[in-house]
């Protein structure tokens, strides 16, 4: 069943409003000055002033990555432990590997049956051969093996 909606008609027609607007526009144009040109000219002058105040940079600047060397196996970039986002990413990736048939790298307890629980256990034991790359905005990065974290 379809519901039919009925609109109430107002006292004035839309055509009447259009004719009134056209008559008002013609009276302004009879002076010979177009108001839209004046507004456009003033906006362009304001935009020029704004662009003079701020420096613009080209986007074609080369971005090169450089590795930070740590001689004594210490973490220079970021905290000394894994962040919750890094843990989630590693757990998810390892869980996917396990679900596709990858071998388990540590001896696990019998109560761990889910791939996510096994991946968390392997991460806690630091037996995964995975490293994390932390990148700074200036292009410096450090590859951090899981064994280095606290």
UniProtKB/TrEMBL annotation:
The record, for InterPro entries, names:
RPB6/omega-like_sf (IPR036161), Rpo6/Rpb6 (IPR006111)
Q: Which GO terms describe its biological process?
A: transcription by RNA polymerase I; transcription by RNA polymerase II; tRNA transcription by RNA polymerase III
- Keywords from the named record: DNA-directed RNA polymerase, Transcription
Q: Is Transcription one of the keywords UniProt gives this record?
A: yes
| Protein name, per record | DNA-directed RNA polymerase subunit K
Segments of this protein annotated with the region Disordered: 1-49
Give the organism the record lists. Answer: Candidatus Nitrosocosmicus franklandianus
User: What SUPFAM superfamilies does this protein's entry cite?
Assistant: RPB6/omega subunit-like (SSF63562)
* A single MF term (Gene Ontology): DNA binding
Q: Where is the composition biased (Basic and acidic residues)?
A: 40-49
Entry-linked PANTHER family: DNA-DIRECTED RNA POLYMERASE SUBUNIT K, DNA-DIRECTED RNA POLYMERASES I, II, AND III SUBUNIT RPABC2
Basic residues bias spans: 1-11
Q: Name one GO cellular component term.
A: DNA-directed RNA polymerase complex
């Amino acid at each position: 069943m379809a519901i039919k909606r009925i609109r109430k008609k107002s006292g004035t027609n839309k055509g009447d409003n259009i004719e009134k607007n056209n008559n008002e526009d013609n009276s302004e144009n009879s002076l010979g000055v177009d108001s839209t040109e004046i507004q456009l000219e003033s906006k362009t002058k304001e935009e020029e002033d704004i662009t003079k105040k701020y420096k613009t940079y080209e986007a074609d600047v080369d971005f090169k990555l450089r590795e930070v060397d740590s001689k004594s196996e210490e973490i220079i970039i970021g905290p000394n432990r894994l962040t919750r986002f890094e843990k989630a990413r590693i757990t998810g990736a390892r869980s996917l590997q396990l679900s596709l048939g990858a071998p388990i790298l540590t001896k696990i307890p019998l109560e761990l049956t889910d791939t996510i629980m096994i991946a968390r256990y392997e991460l806690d034991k630091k037996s995964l051969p995975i490293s994390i790359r932390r990148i700074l905005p200036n292009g410096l990065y450090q590859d951090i093996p899981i064994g280095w974290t606290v």
